[in-house]
């Protein structure tokens, strides 16, 4: 499980970098975590507490289970031959987690946030899935390890730039991060997480950062050649590449405006899907 631990460290690093970019101290997330651990949980009237807390716990669990199939160098916690499918399935579990939190708290704004994330999922999931399939098609495999090995000499991100770009956009959307933070937007007082407090809030946001780190790490075997690189061992190259992608995703939160769902839906169906399908067609022709 060393690979999962490495991704956990990356998630903590992402939280610290996000704090720095936001004008706070690097240890602000750690101090906030300590504060939340000592804060009493609150509950709204007639809230479904078991349902809400199920969603809170499921988000970091989905991130950890997804991390188990992402290789770091040559090692992987769970060598699943269809790891790409498994990784994609955990994103759908994250949909359910956010929606359960929004529904279970019995709060109007929280429910709006939960439904926003479902709408966002409908917009990003098809482009995301096609980006994953494009890399799998080129490698003739759904295994992250074989996809990484197929990039010997030329990264997929170099000759599949559209697929890589669409994957990065969908990584932001699946973690409701940056321009896709509408499900937890300020216009609805925090959306899905409005009523979360204490340890519940801490666990939920830990899961979100974990999912962000896993999405960044998955881009390495998919598009950046896995652990291939000179001088350093494979695991070190995987960590370096994942850290660079993660830094880019964290930076996007502070530099890009939040998009409304209907605008993202239009862009996804009229721009992202045709573009990534065209990329897949090119890859299919080259492979054949």
Automatic annotation (TrEMBL):
Belongs to the complex I subunit 1 family. It is a multi-pass membrane protein. Pfam families: NADHdh (PF00146). The chain crosses the membrane at residues 57-80, 92-115, 121-142, 154-177, 234-252, 264-287. Keywords: Membrane, NAD, Transmembrane, Transmembrane helix. It is found in: Cell membrane; Membrane. This is NADH-quinone oxidoreductase subunit H. It comes from Actinomadura algeriensis. Its main location: membrane. It comes from the Bacteria.
């Amino acid at each position: 499980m060393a690979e999962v631990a490495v991704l956990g460290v990356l998630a903590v690093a992402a939280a610290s970098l996000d704090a720095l970019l936001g004008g706070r101290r690097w240890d602000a997330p750690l101090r906030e975590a300590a504060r939340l651990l000592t804060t009493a949980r609150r509950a709204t009237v007639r809230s479904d507490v078991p349902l809400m807390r199920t969603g809170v716990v499921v988000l970091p669990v989905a991130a950890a289970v997804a991390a188990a199939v992402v290789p770091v160098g040559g090692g992987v916690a769970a060598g699943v031959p269809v790891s790409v499918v498994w990784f994609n399935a955990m994103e759908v579990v994250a949909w359910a987690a956010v929606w359960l939190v929004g529904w279970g708290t019995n709060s109007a704004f929280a429910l709006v946030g939960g439904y926003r994330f479902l709408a966002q999922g409908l917009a990003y999931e098809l482009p995301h899935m096609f980006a994953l399939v494009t890399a799998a098609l080129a490698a003739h495999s759904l295994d992250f390890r074989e996809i990484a090995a197929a990039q010997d000499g030329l990264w997929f991100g170099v000759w599949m730039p559209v697929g890589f770009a669409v994957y990065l956009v969908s990584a932001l959307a699946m973690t409701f991060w940056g321009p896709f933070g509408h499900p937890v937007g300020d216009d609805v007082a925090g959306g899905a997480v409005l009523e979360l407090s204490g340890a519940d809030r801490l666990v939920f946001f830990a899961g979100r950062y974990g999912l962000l780190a896993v999405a960044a790490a998955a881009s390495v075997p998919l598009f950046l050649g896995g652990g291939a690189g000179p001088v350093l061992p494979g695991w070190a190259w995987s960590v370096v590449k994942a850290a660079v992608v993660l830094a880019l995703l964290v930076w996007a939160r502070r530099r890009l405006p939040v998009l409304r769902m209907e605008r993202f839906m239009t862009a996804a169906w009229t721009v992202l899907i045709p573009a990534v399908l065209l990329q897949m067609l090119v890859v299919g022709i080259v492979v054949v």
